[in-house]
Amino acid sequence: MDWHRRSGLALLGVLAFRIFWGFAGPVTARFGSFVKGPRSVIAYARSLLGGAHRLTFGHNPLGALSVVAILLAMSVQIGLGLFALDTDGLESGPLARFITFEQAQTAGDLHEASFNILLALIVLHLAAVTFYLVVKRANLIVPMITGRRALGANVERAAQPMARAPFTRILLGVALGVLAVWLVTR
Amino acid sequence: MNKFSILSVLVMAATLSACGEGAETAAPAAEIDPAIKSAIETRQTNLKDLGAAMKTLGDNAKSGTPDVAAMQAAAGKVQVHAAAIGTWFPAGTGPSSGVKTEALDTIWTDAAGFEAAVAKFQAEAANITTAAATGDAAAIGAAIPALGGACKNCHDTYRLKKS
Predict the structure, then answer these.
(1) B52 in contact with A at a CB cutoff of 8 Å?
(2) In the beta sheet, which residues pair with residue B103?
(3) CB contact A90 to B (< 8 Å)
(4) Which of A89, A157, B83, B142 lies at 20 to 30 Å from A135 by C-alpha?
């Protein structure tokens, strides 16, 4: 249970960082740059199946759905975990003390159930990344980490020049993550 | 037939078969003895009360500003329920009663083992009562893990595991 708790709190910090980064990070990390409407999603999905497919600069419109869905599912999972209580009233999340026994038990039950949704999304996401790797012969993971991608004919060009986010902003993001964890555990 | 009429027939067939399904899973043939039902429901209410008391103890033990009076009241509840818990499992209040319960048949088939588990719980309840009498939150807190272990000890063997 200790490792369960520590993992949950660590993920809370990671989640807080990612949400901040989605508004303050470099252009490819920002939600505003890759979350698109249904028409773009459908057009991109068609291009994947059709053959006239180009790798997008940053997250593609379909991947964007995955980002939003997984972040939402994680928020629900972590949020419920903070308030959860086991059947015997023995093990509880750090915020369970603010609610009643019955409410915390319900949070615990929902926390258990919502994991299945998160798991399904993760499996789907991994399958998609594998599809890109094997069928489209495109490695989506490495550029996400290094920030570099080789430009070829099938790669979209950037609308504006790429720039790294200032290091101070990374520090701020980390600080926000730490703050989130501190707030729930004090 | 066109696609639409084939679809309508399939939907109607599915709906009708669902109705048939319902009849099979209706209430069991035998009537449930109201005394049995009442015994099980009272037991479940009491066990939830115990769980709530454990939560109160745990919440206060973890808090920087524990409410000793609340901890003492919770310990009092644990003592009261521990004293009576042996009487909550009369014959016939198990899984075959027809009432939804997590009590396993082993409570009655392994009566000696169950009694030992109850005795262990009562011993830990006595410990936390002694600690509560001191009025020291830290002392009460120190008695919680062993008490929780006694809950778990019984549940591991005699209560239905959540899948």
Answers:
(1) yes
(2) B159
(3) yes
(4) A157
Helix runs in B63-110, H state only: 68-84, 106-109
Q: Is A87 in Cβ contact with B55 (below 8 Å)?
A: no
Ranges of H-type helices in A25-60: 31-34, 38-50
pLDDT at residue B19 is higher than 70: no
Q: What are phi and psi of B2, to 5 degrees?
A: -90, 175
Residue of A87, A96, A97 with shortest CB distance to B51: A87
pLDDT of residue B24: 47
Q: For B66, which residue in chain A has the nearest alpha carbon?
A: A97
ipTM: 0.73
In one letter, which amino acid is A167? F
DSSP-assigned letter for residue A146: H
**pLDDT tens track for B45-102:** 999 999 999 999 999 998 889 999 999 999 999 999 999 999 999 999 999 999 999 9
Distance from CA of B89 to the nearest CA of A (A): 18
Q: Nearest-CA residue of chain A relative to B145?
A: A90
- Cβ distance A92 to B55 less than 8 Å, yes or no, reads yes
Q: Is the dihedral of CA B108, B111, B116, B118 positive or negative?
A: positive
